[in-house]
């Protein structure tokens, strides 16, 4: 039986997406704020991608049982990628078009990026980073999707091996967590074993492990209180005394802070605060926001430069308004692009399945 949608994960995805948008807004526009800086400050907001990986791994809990019941790889894999890969492909093509128009209009390259045909192809296929090729940096935040696909493949293989060999799947997930840590520690730079995959492996498979603990055991009051304390302490340290947590902050976030946040946001009293259809809808559109946000920033730059608008990019208000508009566009994209494409692919796959059965 499917578990009810976890609104705590939805809420965290929304917050993380907004902060990532802020992060890349500052990075692409090369602006500095007088107070909190989401790029170029003490804290690296890019580590929120580990939260995305952890949540993606957390959501694999039900699939462990489905694979045990005979779910084949084709059904598992297609079900995972049919939603996001078409959108990623369209965004990659649009990004390259924007790079072309930027050069044609202004006679200079945007962030030294030129057209890259092969890079566009591997970006469309979702294998731009972590696989066997150098990352072409086309709509670069999509490196997360590229590595996530690898994580899905490894998740299915490791789960299937545990079933066939009658091994507890937890052991294999632990090995994959340590594989990611080892890759990062040794600065390994090989196909499937590199900077990108390291971040994905240790955070995704820790998310799987955490979901097993979260769903199979009752979270005791002591753990909830400890989680609140840890989140308060780490947050305060990041804001006021960063040197306390600066070393290995990515591991502190992945193995302590993010799981503690999930536990806190699943406390009944807190769940009532954000349990609403609005949160669910915003979470559904957040992926579209993530996919389009760099392209939207580039459009923002082109329009401002071409029309001599002289927009003050170094303004929190401008950044917030941009993000609100981006969420509006993300909602439109969700209903007019993502959902219709998903239905079309589902219909096509079903018709092919019926033909094969004849």
What does this structure look like?
The protein has 358 residues and is an all-alpha fold. It has one domain (7-357). Helices cover 73% and strands 0% of the residues. Helix 4 packs parallel to helix 12 (277-306). The two termini are 31 Å apart. GO terms for molecular function: acyltransferase activity, transferring groups other than amino-acyl groups. Residues 6-331 form the Acyltransferase domain. Keywords: Acyltransferase, Membrane, Transferase, Transmembrane, Transmembrane helix. InterPro entries: Acyl_transf_3_dom, Acyltransferase_3. The chain crosses the membrane at residues 43-64, 84-103, 115-131, 143-159, 166-183, 195-214, 226-245, 251-270, 282-303, 315-337.
Oligomeric state of shown chains: single chain
Strand content: under 5%
What is the overall shape? globular
Number of domains: 1
- Strands, count: 0
Terminus-to-terminus distance: 31 Å
Major sheet attributes:
none
Computed over alpha carbons, the radius of gyration is 21 Å
On the 0 to 100 scale, the average pLDDT is 94
Estimated structural class: mainly alpha
Domain Acyltransferase: 6-331
Protein name: Acyltransferase
GO molecular function, one term: acyltransferase activity, transferring groups other than amino-acyl groups
GO cellular component, one term: membrane
